[in-house]
């Protein structure tokens, strides 16, 4: 393990590895976090990450609030992400002298500071409490959705939420689109066309996202800012409008996710210009769309 | 229409017709309520019901609180029973003199009182406001449930709730078990065995309830009081434990429901003795059960 | 002062003297309470009352809750009953030995108990805190009502409220109908015809209540139980429907009040039978009423 | 109708036309909004406005929150602005091709963006829901105020409020000073002198504002920032202090309003310099004031 | 283990053994509960208790609510009873056939019912969740109190609380008076004389209660109903008023406790008559008291 | 008194004099505030301060919120800073003409504005209400802490709090470390080593702060920003780890305090550079620390 560690005085990190395993050392112990798992490391915790190959992923940082499970409402006592599936580290420590050589890097008010010390900070022999880092395997998500007709809002896929103090408004939600059965009858099954009061940043861990089969690749990202309409591409619309509906598997082998926020997201200059990966033609995926009536629409008043 | 009407000073009625149509006259107008529909008539509203054949059903009365839609939580802005599907009467009136002959019957503190008047009380020419009777067709319920594995709590089938002031505790919930797709893999799909902190009164409007195929007939009822364990009968257990799981329709042609309350329910003497319909052997449906491990159980940590 | 005092272990008393002054001794000091004033004596406080002539009034007892000022909502920081107009006693004591002769009477669970002691209980030399008896002069009530058109709900006359834990529902409200200006144009100005989700017990301290000029006398009472319709008598209706509307004084020289409760009130046998004061013909005040359209109704969409 | 429309991704608009009618096209239908009416168009809604003459007015924009009716508190179930008087559009659409020529302008993070499309966005054939633009005619405001003595806070004139998450603190209130009766005895009837924890921006739709008869003209505005004292001008003070009090009409033919905010308002350079309409002598309206006791003050303890 | 078990459908039990150890079998596993420990067994859980000698104690039953730790307020994140010191059973089971011979006794609506079954109900091989019985050793209570002057309310000794829905009002509190340091200067250190809005039932597990050295024995109980004044006996008063104050140990070797409830407690006939243990002279402990000024009173404004 | 006064439109001041008395004139009257007292002057209040010698202290300004007493939780009805010990001014005024010469200085949006007027603003003859400045003598703080073992969080020393809208999170707390008894057994008694989610600014009014005996002088300050660990210096650690524990006085003659905020504090350039008082070696107070086990640690499971 390197002689460097990090802690964030500003906020909490939700880390979504997309490629490569992360071996995370923390004061609480070690966690191996693999793609299709996520982990959260909160304010003030010192940590260090070992990687083993080309490695990449997504990070969401929230300020002044911690992630928590959504209140389940009528879903009841269990469902979606269950508390028992969140794993925390077991105490691990090293009694290692690094005279003058251990560097602790701190992010405070958006700037980085460094200090040197003589010992490894991972010297916590035992601990108790519930302010700990944790990880979660997305395959444990107990998926709930329509089993008759119509389309549930994507909030039903919420894994974790960082609540604002205004009820119903999140600083950030972490939402996934996991493998599941699609069975809604008399329904256009893909995500509907909509405007959102929240910003939607989508990423893809693996597979093919159902509403954008082309162009949106694992490791990529899309950003739909507040109140600008969007939805499935024209191909998806055509197919989903005409297909004969029967139970089918959706998203097998795929894991797309969304960072959704009531705040606006700024894009870095690098993201817009230097990355050379910007999809200049993204908006064209909707151009072939024509207004017309969708046969797969609901009219539940008809005889069953 | 008869020269008699009724109003309840004590509480609100939720009426579940099981056989025969109800033509309900209220001060707000008329409603035709048929089996598979429900209606609510609140405190103080004068009403009169015409029936046309042998007619029966269920009534749930709540005190000091009105029915409302459950908060949807992560389900989002739409789902379960949608507000737009609740129908209210259009103003209708009659200008009818009934000298000394119109009887208004009032239920107050559990007793009935009668008064005579000269005119029909259904003389409201127009009205506005939102304290009105309403009806709802259960086929409009947008059913949500597990689409991957595991079993959602029956609270996910809540149509209406009469909340107590203790968050999460209902005076009464009206819950249905509507036609839907069952797709959960690695799961024992019928209702699980449980004890409940609430009283469960079940009724059946039509069809066959999935967890008790025999004995529980349309128009019947069952009561499982708080904390006494119950669940599917032995037959249901055997079949559901061994069946190869695939998407299947559940409860087509059936509508069972539950009045669920955090309070205890008293049974009338007539219900226990005089009705001659008591099922003395009900508990025997569980006797053939033997403890054993259910193959259709979840182990989501196995490879998908 | 007598060698007897009283305390109530069950609840708080709101006392409304109607005739005769009350000189109330409490452990906190003395209060002279006269008609058109009210006072509140809470659980556990020992008190004794001297009267000087024929004396009568009304008492409202509430359990498990104290009276408080209503939240003013858009009325703002001041209005209705202002906190500064509630008066509390100044410490007063007597150092009086009454060997074996001072009787303390206690109401506990609706029963009376007595104990003897050697000293006067009014021996508190000084005190501080805010759990004190208080009095309020009803003439200080800052009356608010419609100054354009339409009719405000009588809740706008609330002096004190004893809240239940269900928001918007009171165990008991103390409401008055004080002298004020009536200026609403295009409006039927007396109390409107209504059914109430609460029980209404009305009393009259002095003068003539605007909606029932005859029969309802100072010291009398009327009870309209939940959900039974009522309103002004036929005379009042006739006059108020036809009068040309101009600013006028209402209730000068009059003080009617209401104990309003979300619970049902029981009437004692004495009240119903033995009092010989029951008004057997009360309901006849409404018999001359005929349905017809009231000219003094609002149509604000017409040009002003 | 022009080939341009607009939507605001940042917040909601409350529009107060002062001169000229507005014909507003929205995706929900059309609204004609005239002076003395207001309308609200929320985030994300595309709209376009036709005007017919010299037209002006006021706009208030709020972020992260919607306008709602104030909780009425003791005012009860009805009063102030009643829900039934808010009008929403009926669905209207045009099936109009504008090849490459329809411009959609978006305000996002305070900047304007434009996009072209081939069709009119006003192509919504039908809709349901409650996230809709609306209008309200200020003459429907049911005015409530003192009908005995003293002065209610101006919060009692609140039409709409955009609440912060701190109870009792509004991001913005829309308050009006409508035609009404003034009847308070023993009271200085104009607005009292005060400092405010909120910013007060006042405007005048028509007539003469009671506390500033001169200088404050329809279409004008005044801004009193937090905690700086203000009140009626010297003339108003003199008259209102000496006048013999009787019921009188206030503000007939006048409609002044206030945008009140717990935040501080910035004034544009144009507003301060370039407009040539700044009233440099505004503060002089108070200079003639001398401290003295007001005869029309309250002493309700005196005999009535 | 006997062939009988019990479950309570009505409420939760808090058990305070005073003499003799309890070996409690539950569906969740076994707990050995000894004097100076408490345990809670909730609604619906089947349990059976083995005792080994003369055994006695106290039981508090609450309905419709569970015990929880009090909100700590300014005490912060830790203190009083810490969550980590509550112990729950580890799964334990027996695979025991008892053909027709195992009796399950149920308390439902205050009555006892019995049913027979063929197997031991303690056949739960494993479980997860947080609805479990638990025990707590009172010596782990982190005692907080005045460390300068004055006397904290006994609420600061709250171990567990069963909250009503009215904030600040408990159905029942479990409060202890544990061994601790007494250091308050200028203070009368024993419990002060008071009236309580709650009922106080006190018990004694071992030792001598500081405010009643004689007569109140381990295994005994005292009940002070609402609003009747009480406090230390005359001896305690004399001593504590005159003693020179220095740090001293309080209650070493003693554990008194209080069941405190906002409801009134009824005493059984047996408790009042048949037990032959009633202390007829209890009230005499206060008779020697004379009013006088206590030297050990606070005047913090004097120089320290 | 000078012909200048000040008011703050932005927020409230909490003033902590450290040296020299403050004679504060306000519109509400005069307050003499001496070291070991604090005072609060809220938004909008005009005030002027006379000093008599070299004078210094600390000021905390909060925006959009007022200071209040913390909710006491299980501490009960009294304790910590008691309401009765907060003192407010008695009305005082001067009728003083200062033609063209009285300057009112206003802080608005962080900038200063000045206006001239002819009279003294301290001309308020009488007032009523509860929006007033106040002062509090810190010696009246009723200190509460551990009286058995373990260490209470410093929140238990909170005098005043300015709450954010997120429960449990303060914009700012004012916390003191007053003279008191230290009696916790089996405990390391000084402040423990910790990281804080809040910023800690400490000051010293007089004496020697227990955890930093050297270097931290009266009138000085220390700032520990969020999530950077800190605690007692090495000397303090050594002594407190080895000392035989007995009741002892802590902080006699000392008054340290903390401004604690969930926000980050910026330090002025003057504070960092120009003051020539920066302690460049502060971090060295921890360098001698070695990891080792503390004998004075808790193991409450051992026999008492």
Task: Walk me through the structure.
6 copies of one chain form a homohexamer. Chain A is mainly β and 304 residues long. Chain A has 2 domains: 4-62 and 86-137, Jelly Rolls (Sandwich), CATH 2.60.120; 143-286, Sandwich (Jelly Rolls), CATH 2.60.120. Helix content of chain A is 5%, strand content 37%. Chain A contains 2 helices and 19 strands. A 5-stranded antiparallel sheet of chain A has the order 7-2-5-11-8, with no helix packed on it. In chain A, strands 13-14-19-16-17 form a 5-stranded antiparallel sheet, with no helix packed on it. Chain A has a 3-stranded mixed sheet with strand order 1-9-10, with no helix packed on it. In chain A, a hairpin with a 2-residue loop joins strand 9 and strand 10. The longest helix of chain A has 9 residues, at 234-242. The termini of chain A are far apart. Chain A binds chain B through residues 70-80, 139-150, 152-156, 158, 178-183, 247, 252, 300-301, 304, and chain B through 70-80, 137, 139-150, 152-156, 158, 178-183, 247, 252, 300-301, 304. Strand 12 of chain C pairs antiparallel with strand 12 (144-146) of chain D, so a sheet runs across the interface. Chains A, B, C, D, E, F: It comes from Homo sapiens.
């Amino acid at each position: 393990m390197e002689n460097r560690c990090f802690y964030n005085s500003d906020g909490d990190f939700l880390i979504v590895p997309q490629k490569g395993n992360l071996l995370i050392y923390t004061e609480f112990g070690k966690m191996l976090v693999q793609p299709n798992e996520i982990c959260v490391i909160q304010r003030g915790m010192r940590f260090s990450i070992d990687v083993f190959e080309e490695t990449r992923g997504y990070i969401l940082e929230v300020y002044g609030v911690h992630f928590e499970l959504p209140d389940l409402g009528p879903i009841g006592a269990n469902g979606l992400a269950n508390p028992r599936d969140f794993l925390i580290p077991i105490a691990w420590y090293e009694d290692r002298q690094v005279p003058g050589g251990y560097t602790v890097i701190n992010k405070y008010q958006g700037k980085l500071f460094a200090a040197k010390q003589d010992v490894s900070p991972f010297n916590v022999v035992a601990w108790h409490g519930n302010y700990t880092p944790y990880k979660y395997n997305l395959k444990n998500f107990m998926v709930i959705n329509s089993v008759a007709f119509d389309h549930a809002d994507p909030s039903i896929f919420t894994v974790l939420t960082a609540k604002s103090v205004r009820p119903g408004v999140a600083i950030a939600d972490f939402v996934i689109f996991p493998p599941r059965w699609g069975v809604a009858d008399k329904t256009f099954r893909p995500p509907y066309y909509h405007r959102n009061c929240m910003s939607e940043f989508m990423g893809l861990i693996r597979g093919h996202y159902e509403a954008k089969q082309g162009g949106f690749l694992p490791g990529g990202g899309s950003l739909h800012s507040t109140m600008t309409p969007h939805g499935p591409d024209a191909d998806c619309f055509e197919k989903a409008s005409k297909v004969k509906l029967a139970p089918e598997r959706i998203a097998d082998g795929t894991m797309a996710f969304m960072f959704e926020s009531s705040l606006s997201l700024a894009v870095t200059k690098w993201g817009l210009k230097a990355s050379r990966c910007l999809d200049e033609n993204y908006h064209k995926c909707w151009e072939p769309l024509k207004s017309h009536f969708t046969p797969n629409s609901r009219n539940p008043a008809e005889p069953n």
